[in-house]
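To whoever is on call:

I kicked off a structure prediction for a single chain this morning and the downstream step that reads the tokens threw a length-mismatch warning. I double-checked the sequence; it's 142 residues and nothing unusual in it as far as I can see. Pasting both halves so you can look.
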Amino acid sequence: MNKSQFSAGGVVYKNTASGIEIVILTRNGGKVFCLPKGKIEGSETPEQAALREIREETGLTGAIEEELGPIKYRFNSEEDGVRVNKTVTFFLVKYISGSTNDHDTDAEEVRWLLLSEALKIMTYPSERKIAENAQDRLQKRT
């Protein structure tokens, strides 16, 4: 049996003197470096879910600027062994306020990294492509 699951997340960025920085989370004992994301709940839109998950997982608030696109993958649910077809829609999110010290327990560590550095350590190739897409769009603005 298969089920579908829909999530949303974002590439949260800010411009600094050193360049564009994005937020990366660590999970699984510091072995996984990923973007903030989570399940769409109830009647939430993907945009609302992305901003909520970013706030919960990173302690930051931001403003969605544009959609970066979806990624799709499959996994076996640990709860019931069911095959899950997951779609995550990502957005480009400009940092407004907040501190990465205020993240929830879903993330072990939350940190700002130069986008070029984040691309080198991101665990999932599909999320790396989303971050590269964000980089391309941000560079076209300058």
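Update from on-call: the warning came from a stale cache, not from the record. Cleared it. Sanity check on the structure: Residues 17 and 80 are 48 Å apart (CA to CA).
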